[in-house]
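Incident review: delayed structure delivery

Summary: a single-chain prediction request sat in the queue longer than the usual turnaround. Root cause was a stuck worker, restarted by the on-call engineer. No data loss occurred. The affected request and its eventual output are reproduced below so the record is complete for anyone auditing the incident later.

Affected input:
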Amino acid sequence: MSWTHQPVPRRRALTAATGLAAGVLLPPTTAPGTASAREPALAPAAAFTNPVIWQDFADIDVIRVGGTFYASASTMHYSPGAPVLRSYDLVNWEIAGHSVPTLDFGAKYDLNGARGYVRGIWASSLAYRPSNRTFYWLGQIDFARTYLYTATAAEGPWSRLATINTPYYDAGLLVDSDDTLYVAYGNTTISVAQLSPDGRTQVRTQQVFTTPSSIGTLEGARFYKINGQYYIFLTRPANGQYILKSSSGPFGPYTLRQVLLDLRGPIPGGGVPHQGGLVQTQTGAWYYLAFVDAYPGGRMPALAPVTWTADGWPVLQLVNGAWGTSYPSPALPPPPRPVTPMIGVDTFDGTILKPRWEWNHNPDTTKWSVNNGLTLRTATVTNDLYWARNTLTHRIQGPTSTATIQLDFSAMRDGDRAGLALLRDSSAWIGLKRDGGTTRVVMVDGLTMDANWNTTGTGTERAGAAAPGGRLWLRANADIRPGAARPGTFSYSTDGITFTRLGPAFSLGNDWRFFMGYRFALFNHATQALGGAVRVLRFELTTP
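Output delivered after worker restart:
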């Protein structure tokens, strides 16, 4: 994920409509020397549709441990960070946990005197080390240093193992067959580092490749050892994928081959699939899990099968010259259980949040609780939602979906603002304003940031109505199909059955530069004094 090199290639990629992958005319063969890499016969009726996840999970790393697949993704300023996804078939996924429990990288991630928007968890790496049966997450923060976290189970608990002063930008972590830990990283200049056996320090680092000027930028490294060969899988943001191969060890020399460029993707109006990872199933088949730029919703994971040339290069399997909207499903054993859906109802049972939720920056842990409902006490006095702590977010399900909350607002105080937002660098919300002892339900838009993520608008009320009693249902509908500005609409209900539209349609911005897509967000902040609270009794995410 490039900070300084993104604009030109991303704009070009997001408007690209046609193209072919390099090497697609090569004969599809197994990986050299491995008959087991031949994909088994699949039932003709079994197929999957891309995107396999129509939610915002970008910069994917994907691994397999036994019969289970795991993936990690970028989360920027959201906390906890670096979600760990789990699947048994590469198609149906659930959120198992987060590798980074809290963004304890400085006060700006607490919204304390500074803000961390579009910083934090960028492209990072997930690996598994069989020798100690441990998962590893590795990522750099703020171009300053690299952090390494470990866990013995994907769902956690995760804890910090080490801080390394070298910032491994867009890192790919490799556990070699001799148990040595290597990291491939960099932007345009690609390097490989060797870590100490315990992973706590850097033993050696060496530049292994310089990207030709004819290509421009390569980044997003993923590091593999396959049949004795070393591979560094790299993305050209945001329209290409390349791979380096070395037969002489992890430090090279490496040769380069193009995997895809300006390839038509599976989401109408979306971009070119890129910046993901390669993974082999337990039956020997290979797949590439990439993401597709599909704003305003974000970056959506898409899956495609991969074969190998006789001399050891991956070949993406296309459908009519494009990344397929559908492929035969991977031939795998039946899953041990159904995965947990990423949509549906949450009544906030138990005493902890489910892993589908992430906070906007770190929360004030003294100001929220879960116990058969979510209580949000005001944590910030501000008229700016972007400065308010304890805003809880949920990814939007594409192509369109609706979030409905049941809200008890009887404990609000004068000056409080609470509700349900469509949150990004241009935002809108429906919710409650309490002023002068009176509570009203309102629709507000015009919450905006500039290109440096400073607030430029704190919102304008577009419509309002009386809010009788102390309980209300609030609803937001979002159309996140890419390619054009899309509408978000808001409504409310006093009985949870009949909903009344409130305010004009809100235009969801589809610029990529915030990186994260729109989210549904639950918030409660004060504009006068702390002390008020609201209780979310139910959240439901539905699709048509």
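Verification: The first strand starts at residue 47 and ends at 49.
Action items: add queue-age alerting; document worker restart procedure.
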